[in-house]
C-alpha cells in the first residue's frame, strides 16, 4: 500500500488519532489493510450525532463484548483492550466526524479524549496498534486545547 497509510503499517506513525484526507474507497482501504494483516473498522457518519449513537456505532464496528455499558468509561475500557479482534493492528475510520463536533460539542470533546487516551494506553501496554482516522469535513484542532489534529 502506498501513500500515507503505509506510514501506519510500517510503524512510521505513532498510534493515535489523525485527520486523513484520502479519498480512497473504504473497500480498497479494507483490502489493503487486510493484505497487511490489519483490520479496518468504520463508523457510519450518517447516525453519529450524539454520544449514545457513537457508543452504538463503536460497539457495532468493533464487535464490542456483551458487557459494554454504552458509556464513556466502558468505551475507554473496550478501546484500550480490543483483545477479541483479530489482526496485527486496527484502524477505525470515522467518516464526517464533524457531524458530532457540530451537533454535540460536549460529546465530541469527550470522544476525542477517550479515543486518544485509548490509543496511548495501548501504546504503553504493548497492545496491537490502534489508529483513528478522522475523514471528511470537521474541526482541524483538538477541542481540549486548540492544538492542530495531526494529518496523516
Amount of beta strand: 5-15%
Tally of alpha and pi helices: 6
Counting copies of identical and different chains, the oligomeric state is single chain
Shape: globular
Order of helices and strands: HEHEHHEHHE
Helix content: 40-55%
CATH T-level fold name: Barnase, Chain D
Helix vs. strand class: alpha/beta
CATH top level assignment: Alpha Beta
User: Gap between N and C termini, in Å?
Assistant: 14 Å
Molecular structure report:
With 152 residues, the chain is of the alpha/beta class. It has one domain (18-135): Barnase, Chain D (2-Layer Sandwich), CATH 3.30.370.10. It has helices spanning 5-9, 26-35, 51-61, 72-81, 98-103, 105-125, and strands spanning 17-20, 39-43, 90-95, 130-135. A 4-stranded parallel beta sheet has the order 1-4-3-2, with helices on both faces. Helix 4 (72-81) packs parallel to helix 6 (105-125). The longest helix is centred in the C-terminal third of the chain and has 21 residues, at 105-125. The two termini are 14 Å apart. The model has no long low-confidence stretch (mean pLDDT 93).
Amino acid at each position: 500500500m502506498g501513500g500515507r497509510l503505509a506510514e501506519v503499517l510500517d510503524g512510521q506513525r505513532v498510534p493515535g488519532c489523525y485527520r486523513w484526507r484520502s479519498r480512497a474507497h473504504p473497500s480498497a482501504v479494507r483490502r489493503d489493510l487486510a493484505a497487511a494483516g490489519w483490520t479496518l473498522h468504520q463508523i457510519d457518519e450518517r447516525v453519529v450525532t450524539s454520544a449514545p449513537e457513537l457508543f452504538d456505532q463503536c460497539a457495532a464496528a468493533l464487535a464490542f463484548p456483551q458487557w459494554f455499558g454504552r458509556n464513556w468509561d466502558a468505551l475507554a475500557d473496550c478501546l484500550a483492550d480490543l483483545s477479541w479482534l483479530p489482526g496485527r493492528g486496527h484502524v477505525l475510520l470515522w467518516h464526517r466526524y464533524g457531524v458530532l463536533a457540530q451537533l454535540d460539542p460536549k460529546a465530541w470533546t469527550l470522544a476525542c479524549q477517550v479515543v486518544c487516551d485509548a490509543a496511548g494506553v495501548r501504546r504503553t501496554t504493548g497492545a496491537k496498534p490502534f489508529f483513528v482516522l478522522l475523514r471528511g469535513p470537521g474541526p482541524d484542532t483538538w477541542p481540549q486545547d486548540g492544538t492542530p489534529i495531526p494529518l496523516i
